[in-house]
Specification:
The structure holds 2 protein chains of 2 kinds. Chain A is α/β, with parallel strands linked by helices. Chain A has a domain at 14-130 and 225-240: Thiolase/Chalcone synthase (Peroxisomal Thiolase, Chain A, domain 1). Chain A has 15 helices and 11 strands. Chain A has helices spanning 3-6, 35-50, 70-73, 75-83, 99-112, 143-151, 155-170, 174-188, 202-207, 235-240, 284-296, 313-322, 331-336, 353-357, 361-377; strands at 18-29, 59-63, 89-93, 118-125, 210-212, 215-216, 225-233, 247-253, 305-308, 390-397, 401-408. In chain A, the strands form 2 sheets. Chain A has a 9-stranded mixed β-sheet, sandwiched between helices. The model of chain B has no long low-confidence stretch (mean pLDDT 94). In chain B, strand 2 (13-14) and strand 3 (21-27) form a beta hairpin. Chain B has a domain at 59-151. The chains are: A alpha/beta, B mainly beta. Chains A and B meet through helix 6, helix 7 and strand 5 of A and strand 4, strand 6, strand 7 and strand 8 of B. The complex binds zinc ion. Zinc ion is lined by residues 27, 29-30, 32, 42, 44, 47, 50 of chain B.
C-alpha cells in the first residue's frame, strides 16, 4: 500500500516485484546427515509457511553444492525428486557463496517473464571438517588449486589480509573486530535456526587461538550444515492465494567485477593491473550494492535492516562502507556508536550472521532473505526490529559473483 | 642421488640472485599487464586484442598487507604431517609501476612481527618444498623479503 513512497526514488518499482510467500530453514549445525535431507526439510517448511501444495509449484530452482557429488550438481532436480516428482520446470545454479542469490534471481526472472507463477528455491549443504579445500587432482590452470599449492593460502588468510589492511589504513582495532562478534553472537543466541546460540564476550574472542594474524578463531566463520528455502510467486498468484501484503523482492543484483578488479579477491594470487586502464569509480563490492539500490529505486537511508556476509568480523565493517551505510573507513565508528546494533539506525545481521551460523555455502544467501522476510513480516520474535520496512542482503562469491537482494513490505 | 630444481609453476618466474624476477605478460596493443601471465587473450574488455609479450615485473614493491597461516593448510599444499606445523608468512605486495598487488610467501624467518603495511620488500628466489622421489625434486617459488634483510 505504501509502495508508492518506497518507489519514489525511481528505478524498477512495483512492476519488478515478486512475492515471498514462504520461508523455511533446517537449523545450521554439524548434523552428520546428507544435504538432500536438510534441503527437503527446509523446502517442506517453506511450503507449509506459504500454504502452497508442492504439486502446485510450477518451477523449482536449486542452488548447487559441490560437496555432494552428482546430486549436488543437479540440486534442483535432486530436491524435486526428494519432494516427489510432479513435473515442475527445473534449474540448478552455482555461483560459490552467491549460489543462493542466483537461484533467487533465476526464480524471479521466470516469474517476471511469465514462465512460472510459483517457484520453490532451495539451497543446502553438508560441510566438510576444517578448511574448505579445492577439488582433487593436479590443476595448475585453476586459481583455486594454485593458491593452495603455491601459497597455502586458506580462506582465513585472505580475510586476515583485509583485516590487517583495515587496521593499517583506517585504524580499526582488534577490539572493534571482537565487538562485531559480540553483537552478532547476542543476536544469534535469539535465533532458533543458528548453530551457535550462546552470547560471546570480547574476552572470549581475545582468548581464542590466532588462525591467521590478526584474526582469531572467533573472528572467522565456521563451515556448517544447513538449508534454506523460499516460495516465491508473482504478485497476481499471491493475490489469488490470499496474500494481500506479502514481503516483496524488489531487486536482485548479480553483477560481476569491472576490469581492472583492484581488490585482491579469493582465490586470486594478484589483482588486475591498473596500469593500462584506470579502475572504475566503485570497487566490486560497492558495485554489488549500487546495482541493487538502482534496481530497487532506494538508497542506504531507506534501509531498516541489512544482512551482510560476515565471513570474518572485519569483513562486516567493510560491508558497512560498501553498502554506503557510512563513508570509507568509518565502519568501526558506526559499530562503536551502536548504529548497526538493535536500537540503532540500521541493525546489521539481526539473524546473528555467519558468526552465529557458520557458512552452508549454497544455503547462506537464501537464509539471508529468510531473515529479511521474518523481519519485514514482524515475526522475528525476540530479535525483531520494530517497524522494519526495507531490507538488503549483501554477499560475494568466489570467482567474481556479487549478490544483493532488496526486500520490502 | 640427483636433485632436480623445478619451478612450482612453469614460466611464472626466472633468474638467479639479484636477477630473479616474477614474469607476467603485457598486451602489445593496450599495454595491460597480467600476472599470473595470460598467454591466450588480453582481458582488457576495451582491447581488440594484441600479442602477449613476456615481461619481468618490478623487483621491489611495498607491503599492501600481510598475515600468517597458524594451521596446516590442506592439500595440494605440501607439508610433512609427521613434523610440527611451522607457520609461514604471506605478504601482499603493491607494485607501483604495474599498479597491482601480488601475493607471495615471505622468505624463511620473516614473521608478521617483522612487517608493516607500506614497508619496502623485494622478490627473491625460494624453495616451496622438496619431493624425495628419485630423482628428488626441489620445487622452487618466489618469496618476498624486506629490503635490507640478508638472505
Ligand atoms: Zn590488450
Amino acid at each position: 500500500m505504501d509502495d508508492v513512497a518506497l518507489a519514489a526514488g525511481g528505478g524498477g518499482g512495483m512492476s519488478g516485484d515478486v512475492a515471498v510467500l514462504g520461508a523455511g530453514m533446517h537449523p545450521w549445525g554439524k548434523w552428520g546427515r546428507g544435504f538432500v535431507e536438510y534441503g527437503t526439510v527446509a523446502a517442506r517448511a517453506a511450503l507449509a509457511d506459504a500454504g502452497v501444495d508442492w504439486r502446485d509449484v510450477t518451477s523449482v530452482v536449486g542452488a548447487d553444492t559441490v560437496r555432494g557429488g552428482y546430486p549436488g550438481y543437479v540440486a534442483g532436480a535432486t530436491f524435486a525428486k526428494a519432494l516427489g516428482w510432479q513435473g515442475a520446470r527445473v534449474a540448478s545454479v552455482y555461483a560459490a557463496c552467491a549460489s543462493g542469490a542466483q537461484a533467487i534471481a533465476t526464480a524471479r526472472a521466470q516469474l517476471l517473464a511469465g514462465l512460472a507463477d510459483v517457484v520453490l528455491v532451495v539451497g543446502a549443504d553438508a560441510a566438510p571438517k576444517g578448511f574448505f579445500r579445492p577439488a582433487g587432482g593436479d590443476r595448475p590452470d585453476d586459481p583455486d588449486w594454485l593458491r593452495f599449492r603455491v601459497l597455502g593460502a586458506t580462506n582465513p588468510t585472505y580475510f586476515a589480509l583485509y583485516a590487517r589492511r583495515r587496521m593499517a589504513v583506517h585504524g580499526d582495532t582488534l577490539e572493534d573486530f571482537a565487538h562485531v562478534k559480540v553483537k552478532n553472537a547476542a543476536l544469534g543466541a535469539l535465533n532458533p535456526h543458528a548453530r551457535y546460540r550462546k552470547p560471546v564476550t570480547a574476552d572470549e574472542v581475545a582468548a581464542s587461538a590466532v588462525v591467521a594474524d590478526p584474526l582469531r578463531l572467533l573472528d572467522i566463520c565456521a563451515t556448517s550444515d544447513g538449508a534454506a528455502a523460499l516460495v516465491l510467486s508473482t504478485l497476481e498468484f499471491a493475490r489469488r492465494h490470499g496474500a494481500s501484503t506479502p514481503v516483496r523482492i524488489r531487486a536482485v543484483s548479480t553483477v560481476t567485477p569491472t576490469y581492472p578488479n583492484t581488490v585482491l579477491d579469493l582465490p586470486d594470487i594478484a589483482t588486475d593491473s591498473s596500469a593500462a586502464v584506470p579502475p572504475a569509480d566503485r570497487t566490486f563490492r560497492e558495485s554489488v550494492a549500487h546495482a541493487a539500490y538502482e534496481e530497487a529505486g532506494i538508497g542506504p537511508d531507506d534501509l531498516s535492516v541489512a544482512e551482510v556476509y560476515d565471513l570474518s568480523t572485519a569483513l562486516e565493517l567493510q560491508w558497512y562502507e560498501d553498502l554506503g551505510l557510512c563513508g570509507e573507513g568509518e565502519g568501526a565508528k558506526l559499530l562503536r556508536e551502536g548504529t548497526t546494533a538493535p536500537g540503532g539506525r540500521i541493525p546489521v545481521n539481526t539473524s546473528g550472521g555467519l558468526a552465529s551460523f557458520g557458512e552452508a555455502v549454497p544455503a547462506q544467501a537464501i537464509a539471508q532473505v529468510c531473515e529479511l522476510t521474518w523481519q519485514l513480516r514482524g515475526t522475528a520474535g525476540t530479535r525483531q526490529i520494530e517497524g522494519a520496512r526495507v531490507g538488503i542482503t549483501a554477499n560475494q562469491g568466489l570467482f567474481g559473483h556479487g549478490s544483493s537482494v532488496v526486500a520490502v513490505r | 642421488m640427483s636433485r632436480v630444481r623445478t619451478p612450482v609453476v612453469a614460466r611464472w618466474f626466472d633468474g638467479e640472485g639479484d636477477g630473479f624476477r616474477l614474469l607476467g605478460t603485457r598486451c602489445a596493443s593496450c599495454a595491460a599487464v597480467f600476472f599470473p601471465r595470460e598467454d591466450g587473450f588480453c582481458r582488457n574488455p576495451g582491447c581488440a586484442g594484441g600479442e602477449l609479450v613476456e615481461v619481468a615485473l618490478s623487483r621491489r614493491g611495498r607491503v599492501w598487507s600481510y598475515t600468517d597461516g597458524r594451521y596446516r593448510p590442506p592439500a595440494p599444499y605440501v607439508s610433512d604431517p609427521e613434523l610440527p606445523w611451522e607457520p609461514y608468512t604471506l605478504i601482499a605486495v603493491e607494485l607501483a609501476a604495474e599498479r597491482m598487488v601480488v601475493l607471495g610467501q615471505a622468505a624463511p624467518g620473516v614473521t608478521v612481527a617483522d612487517l608493516e603495511v607500506g614497508m619496502e620488500v623485494e622478490v627473491v628466489p625460494g624453495v616451496l618444498d622438496e619431493d624425495p622421489g628419485e630423482p628428488s625434486t626441489t620445487w622452487t617459488t618466489w618469496h618476498w623479503r624486506p629490503v635490507g634483510v640478508g638472505a
